[in-house]
Amino acid sequence: MAYDDLRGFLAALEAEGQLLRITDEVLPEPDLAAAANAAGRIGEGAPALWFDNVKGFTDARIAMNVHGSWTNHALALGLPANTPVKDQVETFAARWDAFPVAPERRADAPWRENTQQGDDVDLFSVLPLFRLNDGDGGFYLDKAAVVSRDPEDPDDFGKQNVGTYRLQVIGNNRLALQPVPVHDVALHLRKAEERGEDLPIAVTLGNDPVLTLVAGMPMAYDASEYEMAGALRQAPAPIATAPLTGFDVPWGSEVVIEGVIESRTRQIEGPFGEFTGHYSGGRRMPVIRVDRISYRDAPVFESLYLGKPWTEVDYLVGPNTCVPLLKQLRAEYPEVRAVNAMYTHGLLVIISTAKRYGGFAKAVGMRAMTTPHGLGYVSQVIVVDEDIDPFDLPQVMWAMSAKVNPRDDVVILPNLSVVELAPAAQPAGLTSKMIIDATTPVGADARGNFSTPVKDLPEAEEWAARLRQLIAAQG
Amino acid sequence: MTHCPRCAHDTVGRLATSPVPGVWDVLQCHRCRYTWRTTEPARRTRRDAYPDAFKLTADDLAAAVEVPAVPPLRTTP
Q1: Which of A12, A46, A70, A420 could be A39's S-S partner, Cβ–Cβ 3.0 to 4.6 Å?
Q2: Is the pLDDT of residue A427 over 90?
Q3: Which domain holds residue B26?
């Protein structure tokens, strides 16, 4: 089941009992963020939240926590609501193999219903903006898909980037943008600024649930997010042409904001409570001048609470971070069974693998650190045996407790690269990295006493699936 | 006079006002760009209640790093 817009997915969530409408009047602050914060604390099946009675607003419609549980993540992919996490990641990886799936261009985008442009642009009149965390510098757009093109190759569809970046509202027609230097929009901006040119940009809000997943996924520079969305949706992604920039934007967006990143300009931005569970900023960041806003009648404002994990962002970037690492590791090491890179966007990764020979697990751990995503993340790797589910933390802790001899199985590598947002880095952007080899030694590594492990009964896996079906049938 | 809760600057502008008249305004400091709604809790709107950890001085603002740094202009096409 592919959803062409956010509204279609919200209706499906409601039909599944996974959309909670809050009908009592709430304050824009702190209620909206506090409710979404709380959704991350009530268990793995938390619903999306819908608010349309917000004090001081006359027609606000706000959706939060849309991807904020494994249940909702499964439904976004069109899977049964109770699909285990490991199976969600495997399905994600299997669908990836259909990439690229060409998008479908449509002319009748619903966001053409309303327009503001030039001096009439006023973000506050279109969006019910609000603050998330106490220390945030202002109000943020934090669940947008930001579209930009390579200024030196603007006709290359693959190099057109669709990414999620934090955007602070710093004026009625101005936004501040955080492009982490390794990310694609920063490469586009660098090329434009070297030429002294503004960088055109489109910010799309309230997108279909798979497009949002893809926008947060670490993909290759020249790989098209729309073609990946088609693979994951198992149907072409609907796109449309943005009226001002001519960029390819999602057909089903609620709001499309167009303008330029002003060349060679920086302005104070932040702080913002980030995915690391810590604030980052304030720093001087690039600035967007908004020249045009297109929006649907009665637009839905989708926002995302993030702060101390776990929050919605952890579900959002969990599986889509696991899969690139899984693919890249398996390309050279087919022994790799599964990769759990869902802790703080892959700052910590758990890998299960079979072994070729003694020392192999440590090599797999080092390779994870040298993948494109690993260069900026992956500061700790735990490697476990092929019969350990890396998404089952009690199993991982058992492997750690029973199989690790710290003197020989913990490897620390000094002074490697990491994103500047990583709180433990010193200096920012540089960190030591660690591999914990929690696999059973194999020849020529003859350490320990591991000859008689207890194994699950052969029938247990079938019974687990049967129990899940019975529980789901109970409703 | 309204001062910025974060940097104590005395020039504050109004970015927005509530669609329901008289309920709230959204204000912004002209120096540090801190933005707040008048109905937010005191810990976000009043200088004396604002957490020290988030306060900024003029020196902090002047020393804020550029991310990403502005690159050199290309001298050849």
Answers
A1: A46
A2: yes
A3: 12-58
Average of per-residue pLDDT across A430-455: 95
Q: Does B32 fall in a domain?
A: yes
The angle at the Cα of A249, spanning A9 to A176, to the nearest 5 degrees, equals 100
Q: Which CATH number fits domain A318-445: 3.20.20.70, 3.40.50.300, 1.20.1250.20, 3.40.1670.10?
A: 3.40.1670.10
B71 DSSP 8-state letter: P
**Domain coordinates of chain A in residue numbers?**
6-314, 318-445
Rg (CA), chain A: 23
- The arithmetic mean of pLDDT across residues A42-65, rounded, is 95
**Given an 8 Å threshold on Cβ–Cβ distance, is A137 in contact with B34?**
yes
Q: Which CATH class is domain A6-314?
A: mainly beta
Nearest residue of A to residue B53 by CA position?
A135
A124 interaction partners in chain B (CB closer than 8 Å): 15-16, 26
pLDDT value, residue A420: 87
Structure pTM? 0.94
Measured between CB atoms, does B67 come within 8 Å of chain A?
yes
CA distance A35 to A55: 15
Is B26 inside a domain boundary?
yes
* A233: confidence class by pLDDT, cuts 50, 70, 90: very high
In a domain, B43, yes or no: yes
Chain A closest-CA separation from residue B4 CA (Å) = 12
Higher pLDDT, A461 or A106: A106
Q: Indicate yes or no: CB of B34 within 8 angstroms of CB of A124.
A: no
Q: In terms of CA atoms, which chain A residue is nearest residue B51?
A: A135
The answer to whether residue B51 sits within a structural domain is: yes
Interchain contact, A189 vs B68, CB within 8 Å: yes
Find out whether A160 and A227 touch, Cβ atoms under 8 Å. no
Q: Inter-chain contact A124–B73, Cβ cutoff 8 Å? A: no
Average pLDDT estimate for B69-76: 90
Identify the three-state secondary structure at position A47. coil
- Number of structural domains chain B divides into: 1
Does position A297 have pLDDT exceeding 70, yes or no?
yes
What's the rounded Cα separation, in Å, for the pair A419 and A430?
Answer: 8
Average pLDDT over residues A419-448: 95
User: Does A274 qualify as catalytic in the annotation?
Assistant: yes
Q: What is the mean pLDDT of residues A100-120?
A: 97
Q: Name the packing angle between helices A319-332 and A360-369 (round to 10°).
A: 130
Residue A301 phi, psi (nearest 5)? -95, 110
- Chain B nearest C-alpha distance from A156 (Å): 20
Residues A290, A124 contacting (CB under 8 angstroms)? no
Q: Encode pLDDT of A382-420 as tens digits.
A: 999 999 999 999 999 999 999 999 999 999 999 999 998
